[in-house]
């Protein structure tokens, strides 16, 4: 009963979590929800949407208050009450940019929203790929450790029989030292694998925010569709982000071009004089005169057009780089798969067979403990090499599919 009552309190204490082990898909989902970098990009997109409402709006009106025709010399100097020209003035004015400029400002705000959303999509892809690789790395790090523990256990069993063999005269006393050295060397390797597990877990913590993530479920198997990935490169988030930047550059060209057109303004003022005289009302219109377009507006238009051309060139460069990276990664994936198949079908079975043969020979007195230790060390190398190559193939599949795909998984 006390434990039941304390559970809400325990759940509220930071660092105490009752989360279940993370499957691959659950890890990706948590990363999408918890990654601070993705939250930052999403807030940037929200900021761009908030600014859109003010784009193209008229500027704020201006209030003016002053005194007109105040005498400062002559017989009526500093005596405005004797002068019929002195008056207090209050007025308001409103600038009205030309319609083309206002529409261009709205287009620029729309392009800013698209650019922010595209930037968010790029970051989401980065988070997803990083989380996937971290989960896969942790899964294989734990498998390597488990496999080495099995091999180490087998070696320790064989080494444990050495004292009896020495007592019966079937082995030399020095062989006990060789066995202990072999076990110590494999324990050193185990320490490295334990460190690798901790490092992989720390990387997964970075993406998911889980302070002590535990994984569960099958390791994903991604089928790489090379043709489909190549066909979708133009819809890749990186390319779409550059397309959004091209939209910003085009909007800047429109804003610069609108500068060649006249802007307007209106003003209204009320002028108060001495009660003995009448008051005045003034109204007017202002029009900007872009006479020097060659040295002013045209220069800005040329700069904006050059920037738009730069973005288009960068898009082509980025697409070529993306296509080259994809082809290189596919070539590596094919190589890694062939090496994995070779290790799985040849290297590891031969190492396992060698252990069996050496163990049988040792039992028959035809092999030494050194031969046994060498065979187990070779088996550890072959088994971990097979897992390393399998991990590369799995990571390649995840990286290729998640990095280069054009649609959400």
TrEMBL record:
GO CC annotation terms, alphabetical: cell outer membrane; efflux pump complex
Keyword flag Transport: yes
Subcellular location: Cell outer membrane
InterPro entries: OMP_efflux, TolC-like
Organism from which the protein derives: Sphingobium terrigena
Pfam family, any one: OEP
Family: Belongs to the outer membrane factor (OMF) (TC 1.B.17) family.
Major place of residence: membrane
Signal peptide range in chain numbering: 1-19
Keyword Ion transport: no
Keywords for the protein's UniProt record, in alphabetical order: Cell outer membrane, Membrane, Signal, Transmembrane, Transmembrane beta strand, Transport
Molecular function GO labels: efflux transmembrane transporter activity; porin activity
PANTHER family: OUTER MEMBRANE PROTEIN TOLC (PTHR30026)
Name of the protein this chain belongs to: TolC family protein
């Amino acid at each position: 009963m006390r434990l039941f009552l304390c559970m809400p309190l325990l759940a509220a204490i930071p660092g105490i979590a009752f989360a279940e082990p993370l499957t691959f898909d659950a890890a990706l989902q948590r990363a999408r929800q918890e990654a601070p970098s993705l939250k930052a990009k999403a807030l940037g997109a929200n900021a761009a949407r908030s600014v859109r409402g003010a784009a193209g709006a008229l500027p704020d009106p201006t209030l003016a208050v002053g005194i007109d025709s105040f005498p400062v010399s002559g017989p009526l100097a500093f005596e405005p009450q004797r002068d019929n020209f002195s008056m207090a003035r209050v007025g308001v004015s409103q600038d009205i940019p030309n319609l083309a400029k206002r529409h261009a400002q709205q287009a620029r705000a729309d392009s800013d929203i698209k650019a922010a959303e595209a930037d968010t999509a790029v970051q989401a892809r980065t988070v997803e790929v990083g989380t996937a690789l971290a989960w896969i790395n942790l899964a294989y790090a734990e498998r390597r450790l488990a496999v080495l523990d099995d091999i180490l256990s087998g070696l320790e069993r064989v080494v444990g029989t050495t004292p009896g063999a020495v007592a019966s005269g079937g082995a030399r006393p020095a062989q006990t030292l060789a066995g202990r050295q072999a076990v110590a060397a494999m324990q050193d390797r185990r320490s490295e694998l334990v460190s690798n597990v901790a490092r992989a877990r720390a990387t997964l913590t970075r993406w998911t925010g889980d302070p002590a993530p535990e994984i569960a479920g099958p390791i994903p198997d991604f089928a790489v569709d090379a043709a489909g990935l190549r066909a979708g490169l133009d819809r890749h988030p990186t390319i779409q982000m550059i397309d959004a930047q091209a939209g910003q550059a085009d909007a800047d060209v429109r804003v610069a071009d609108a500068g060649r057109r006249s802007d307007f303004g209106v003003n209204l003022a009320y002028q108060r004089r001495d009660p003995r005289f009448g008051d005045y009302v003034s109204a007017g219109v202002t029009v900007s005169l872009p006479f020097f377009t060659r040295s002013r507006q045209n220069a800005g238009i040329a700069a904006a057009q050059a920037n738009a051309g730069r973005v288009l060139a960068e898009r082509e460069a980025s697409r070529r780089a993306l296509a080259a990276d994809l082809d290189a990664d596919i070539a590596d994936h094919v190589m890694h798969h062939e090496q994995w198949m070779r290790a799985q079908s040849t290297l590891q079975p031969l190492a396992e067979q060698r252990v069996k043969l050496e163990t049988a020979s040792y039992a028959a007195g035809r092999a030494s403990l050194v031969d046994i230790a060498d065979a187990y060390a070779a088996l550890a190398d072959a088994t971990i090499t097979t897992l390393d190559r399998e991990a590369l193939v799995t990571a390649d599949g995840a990286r290729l599919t998640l990095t280069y795909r054009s649609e959400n998984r």
